[in-house]
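Hey, resending since the last one bounced:
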Amino acid sequence: MNIKIKIKDIDPNPYRNTEHYRIDEKKVQQLIQSYITTRFWPVIIGRRVGKKIQIAFGHHRIEAAKRLYGENYELEIIIMELSDDEMLKMMANENQQSFATPFIVEMETIQAVVQAFGDGKIELNPPSGVSGRGLRCAPKFSQVSDPRTKFGSSSRDLLEDGLKFYNAMTVAEFLGWTDGDKSASKGRRAQPRVEDALSALEYVEEGYLKLSDLEGLSLTDCSRVIHEANKERKERLNTLKESEEYLEKIEADLEKVQGTPQEEDVKQRVKFARTDVQRAKEKAKTEPAAAMKAVIDHAKDKKRDREAAEAAKAATDRVPKKLPDVSQAADNLRTQIERLVGGAHGQDELGRKLSELSGHREHISEGSRRLLVTALERLAKRVQSYADKFKAPPDPKLTVTTRRLLTR
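The structure tokens again:
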């Protein structure tokens, strides 16, 4: 069903975080210009919620229409019975139709899916198990290293208790963002952008990263930020694990040497080991942020350098370019032509051969002579066409007679 409704009575998709994921001004201006030129309004789909309409997609189109005609302007909306599941997928699909979708828009889509899953508004396929790398529990984004220890239940109990576990694959399956053979469960995997977005949201949740840090960065730069942070975190967690294992071993040794001359020495080693564990814990928390900051600063410096170079090139292109000295090139070409036709002295190879051959024309067969003459006549016409191009254009004020004299 199609209805017309005032712009002020249109609400955004409830899964679009308008605070963090703002309207793209450049895209709005492009749409305004397109509307002015073509007067074509693309289809917008929505659902009725009370007296208002929630649109599934088309937020930039609504903003463009509002700026052109005001909030009382009536737009035609296709009204459909849309579930939360469908509203989410339509929003995700619109985001992907834009070339070079910003990474933070990818994050918006993933965030909306996880939060809707945590709120019970949509369902995701259950993970293959409740243990393993990358497992999370909605609505949180931090990874759960060992759910059975964290929640104090068996694997089966965790699933039956209704805890909303998910991973990159379950989110990717919901959105259709998987690689591999879609007709088979084995061999499929989540696209890298899903893993990257979940990691980024995890770092935001833990306070290591702000969404504003990623604004303006390309998908490649953002992926590198997350890759470096994950690499740094893995190294720091390995260091922490090794420190804790060493401390556990030394504490066990201390129990064995109590009351012996070695007790004081082992006590000191336990003290140093505990200090190392504390330092490793602090680094595990702070180093991912430091690693990300370094990569972000580098990416933004490169972006500024690239923009400065583009601006400089644009300014250079606006300045009339000085032509090279083509007169010298013309003189060189004239000399070559004169060598060809200007007699024996100074002739090039072709001119010399033509001069010698013309002295024995009576010995050339009629057929060969005719073909040679045809080739030379074609060459003459081609040369004449070039000669015409180099002649100065006639002054319209000159008489017809004068023009004929000048062009002879």
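The CA atoms of residues 85 and 122 lie 6 Å apart.

Sorry for the duplicate.
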